[in-house]
Amino acid sequence: MTDHPNEKPEVKSSMDSKPLSDTNEQIQAINQRLTNTLVSGILKKHGVDRSKLKPLSEEKKQELRDLVNDLKSKLEALSSNTVKESAEEAAPTKKRRIKRKSLME
After folding, report:
1. In tens digits, what is the pLDDT along the chain, a chain of 105 residues?
2. How far apart are the first and last CA of the chain?
3. Which of 37, 46, 58, 62 suits 13 as a labelling partner, its CA being 20 to 30 A distant?
């Protein structure tokens, strides 16, 4: 407990105890399952069946690969930024300490 009523007690997140690589793998697994579920639902909604599909040209396949790789890199960047931001929020910086100290005086 803190001496100051306005200060929030530090709360450790469950991510603190796990290595970042495990957390990233879990996020990727969840994203993969979510994507599969959404795509399956959309295809089923519109009556798309594997037997009705026409084969894609190599050009379209490469275009889709590029799109997926681009989305993957953006997702990884977003994920790493989120992890960095949560780490920054967890540890008070010098500015925050100075600000808190000046507010108490």
Report:
1. 445 454 544 444 444 555 667 888 888 899 899 999 999 999 899 888 888 888 889 999 999 999 999 998 998 888 887 767 766 666 655 555 555 656 655
2. 20
3. 37
C-alpha span between 43 and 41 (Å, rounded): 6
Which tokens sit at 61? 């396949």
User: Model-level pTM greater than 0.90?
Assistant: no
Structure tokens at 65: 């690969």
Dist CA 32 CA 26 (whole Å): 10
Whose structure tokens read 């957390």?
A: 23
In order of 7, 14, 28, 68, the CA distances from 32 in angstroms are 39, 22, 6, 12
Q: Position of tokens 């894609």?
A: 56
d(CA 23, CA 83): 10
Backbone angles phi, psi at 49, to 5 degrees: -130, 150
Amino acid identity for residue 39 in this structure:
V
